[in-house]
Recover the amino acids of this structure.
């Protein structure tokens, strides 16, 4: 076991866990932040996506020991960011969600896309969101919402 | 001048000429032997260098290396070199695209519990260092050698730079320590150890980085 000082959504959080513990389980089990979802556990579905130092990252495959002082933003904190707020509003406006399980990961990836590419093309969206799976098949609405958020951010 | 002195001088001149000719005649074959010897040494060195290159080539074309030296818009995975899942794409800098960068999944170290490989700054090799054609056929030894030694394509690396790259680049070192697949089995390794690979590179570089002729 080791103790880590993490920067989560702008707050200093201390956890004492095994160094190999994936960030996902630190967030969910230790910090009780259950907005980030467990899907596959092998970075194949995107449900666990958070931002680490601004990079969309699959938290299920990042050992907490590799985080260091990099800032972590989760779905609980993304709404305080202007791009994050616009994306969440667009998600509501377009009624994207069906079962909702994958949607926190979808939103985190969409925000990362829009921060780097404010006016994404369909190809940009397909390529950037290709690692986020949705078993309900909400992909069309996800695309509409990303474009709506992009418009909102003009 | 008396006739006997004239005859003596003539004999002296003839003897001197013969002596000089003898010296030249002896000297000529000696110079030829030196050149032949040098040529033989050079050819032998080149042959050794080419043999070392073939060892290097056997590593470069192993899936642990060549899967990220594609000619396409995507990396490959596995020993069958299939397209990377999730439609992962190269992106403008070989590091993926905004929400799906290489480092979205590939961290600083291998993640044995999930089988996701990792090393510092995971990324694709630039297209100038493609070692496959657009149909994913591995290029010939001569073609790969020409690409690797072309400083307009290889990030301006000379022989010493190539040796350092093979010895120290984290992604090169990863290929020899690729750890486990998702099912817990070990990934296959290149045909040489890292130490043997570096040594083969050193012999190739010391021989002047010779490349095979032809296509």
């Amino acid at each position: 076991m080791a103790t880590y000082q993490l920067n989560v959504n702008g707050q200093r959080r201390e956890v004492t866990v095994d160094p190999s513990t994936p960030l996902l389980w630190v967030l969910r089990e230790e910090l009780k932040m259950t907005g980030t979802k467990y899907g596959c556990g092998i970075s194949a579905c995107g449900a666990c996506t958070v931002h680490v130092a601004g990079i969309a990252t699959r938290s299920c495959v990042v050992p907490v020991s590799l985080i260091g002082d990099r800032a972590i933003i989760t779905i609980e904190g993304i709404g305080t960011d202007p791009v994050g707020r616009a994306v969440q509003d667009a998600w509501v406006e377009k009624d994207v969600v069906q079962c909702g399980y994958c949607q926190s990961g979808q939103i985190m990836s969409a925000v990362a896309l829009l921060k780097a590419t404010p006016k994404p093309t369909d190809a940009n969206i397909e390529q950037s969101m290709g690692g986020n799976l949705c078993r309900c098949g909400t992909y069309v609405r996800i695309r509409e919402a990303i474009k709506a958020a992009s418009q909102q951010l003009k | 001048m008396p006739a006997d002195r004239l005859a003596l001088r003539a004999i002296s001149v003839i003897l001197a000429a013969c002596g000089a000719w003898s010296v030249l005649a002896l000297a000529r074959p000696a110079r030829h032997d030196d050149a032949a010897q040098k040529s033989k040494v050079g050819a032998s060195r080149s042959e050794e260098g080419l043999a070392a290159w073939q060892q290097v080539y056997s590593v470069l074309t192993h899936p642990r290396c060549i899967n990220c030296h594609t000619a396409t818009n995507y990396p490959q995975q596995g020993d069958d070199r299939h397209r990377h899942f999730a439609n992962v794409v190269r992106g403008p800098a070989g590091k993926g695209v905004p929400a799906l960068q290489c480092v979205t999944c590939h961290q600083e170290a291998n993640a044995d519990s999930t089988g996701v490989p990792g090393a510092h700054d995971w990324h694709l090799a630039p297209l100038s260092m493609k070692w496959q054609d657009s149909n994913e056929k591995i290029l010939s030894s001569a073609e790969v050698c020409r690409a690797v030694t072309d400083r307009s394509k290889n990030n301006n690396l000379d022989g010493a730079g190539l040796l350092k790259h093979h010895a120290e680049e984290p992604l090169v070192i990863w290929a020899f320590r690729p750890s486990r697949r998702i099912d817990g089995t070990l990934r296959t390794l290149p045909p040489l150890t890292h130490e043997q690979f570096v040594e083969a590179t050193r012999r190739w570089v010391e021989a002047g980085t010779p490349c095979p002729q032809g296509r």
Remarks:
- Helices of chain B lie at 3-60, 63-66, 102-105, 141-149, 159-168, 170-176, 194-206.
- Chain B has seven helices and four strands.
- Residues 3-60 of chain B form the longest helix (58 residues).
